[in-house]
Specification:
With 269 residues, the protein is α/β, with parallel strands linked by helices. The protein has a single domain, classed as Alpha-Beta Barrel (TIM Barrel). The chain is 40% helix and 13% strand. It has helices at 11-19, 32-41, 52-55, 67-78, 99-111, 126-134, 150-153, 165-178, 190-199, 220-223, 237-241, 244-256, and strands spanning 24-28, 45-48, 85-89, 116-118, 139-144, 182-186, 204-207, 215-218. The chain has an 8-stranded parallel β-barrel, surrounded by 8 helices. Helix 2 packs across helix 12, helix 5 (99-111) packs across helix 6 (126-134) and helix 6 runs parallel beside helix 8. The longest helix has 14 residues, at 165-178. The chain binds 3-methyl-2-oxobutanoic acid (KIV).
Length: 269
């Protein structure tokens, strides 16, 4: 063990955590300074999210983010990480077009320092997931509110309520069969996320998906209370932690002892 006294987090280790019912604490980061503090604070997974389009670049959606942006920020974050697992988002239009394009984009992110890539959606991307998986690239799926489809959804809205829940159950199962090593569930009812978590063999990481997921992820700026119009699933950990490192530690502890998210921070069916 190093100074942090936390294990080095690998892709297989995430499955061990699920099997041992140990919660996974994940946060987004975009630069080396915050990445270093997260690594030291015991954050298990650091995600270079394409949310950087909104919280770093000031766009209204994640759609303008390019592969070059993602490569640059992944390189920045990777320089600060010793133990956390580094996951990078595949930006809009880098994986929807074809498997070869997706392989090239995923390869660029892995060469920039990612240890796993994340891509949004199910149906049309299942073959791509299987293609990347077969070539040794760990993939994290992402279903529910997938922000790259914000225009199709008509806004950042909760997904999977009522009869639509069945579609998400099927998507989760198919993604697991295609070879994802983890699955983000965003803005879905807590009961549905709990059911998916029980049925899929891979760890689920929730954001606005209730406390029964195998782990939680938040956009760093939200966890630090920097978002004036924060959605209901956001908690300001800076207020409670007293410093940036304190906030990240408080977040990890709240995820691990299952006090975050509370019911009021979750969506009902
Ligand atoms: O882009 C991002 O930050 C994400 C997380 C919110 C899951 O995809």
């Amino acid at each position: 063990m190093r100074q942090t006294d936390h294990a080095v987090v690998t892709v297989p280790y995430l499955r061990t955590m699920k099997a041992e019912e140990r919660k996974i604490a994940a946060l987004t980061a975009y630069d080396v300074s915050f990445a270093r503090i997260m690594d030291r604070a015991g954050i298990d997974v650091v995600l270079i999210g394409d949310s950087l389009g909104m919280v770093v670049q000031g766009h209204k959606t994640t759609l303008p983010v390019t592969l070059a942006d993602m490569v640059y920020h992944t390189q920045c974050v990777a320089r600060g990480i010793e133990r956390s697992l580094i996951v990078a988002d595949m930006p809009f239009l880098t994986f929807q077009g074809g498997m070869e394009d997706a392989l090239r984009a995923a390869g660029a992110l892995m060469q920039a320092g990612a240890q796993m890539i994340k891509l949004e959606g199910a149906g049309p991307v299942l073959d791509t997931v299987a293609y990347l998986h077969a070539r040794g690239i760990p993939v994290c799926g992402h279903i529910g509110l997938t922000p790259q489809s914000v225009n199709a959804f008509g806004g950042f809205k909760v997904q999977g309520r009522g009869a639509r829940g069945g579609e998400l159950r099927v998507q989760a199962q198919k993604l697991a069969e295609a070879g994802v090593d983890a699955l983000v569930l965003e803005a879905v009812p807590a009961a549905l996320a709990a059911e998916i978590t029980r049925h899929v063999p891979v760890p689920t990481i929730g954001i606005g998906a209730g406390r029964d997921c195998d782990g939680q992820v938040l956009v760093m700026h939200d966890a630090l209370g920097l978002n004036a119009r924060a959605p209901r699933f956001v908690r300001d950990f800076l207020a409670q932690g007293g410093s940036v490192e304190g906030a990240f530690r408080a977040y990890a502890e709240a995820v691990r002892d299952r006090t975050f998210p509370a019911e009021a921070e979750s969506y009902q069916s």
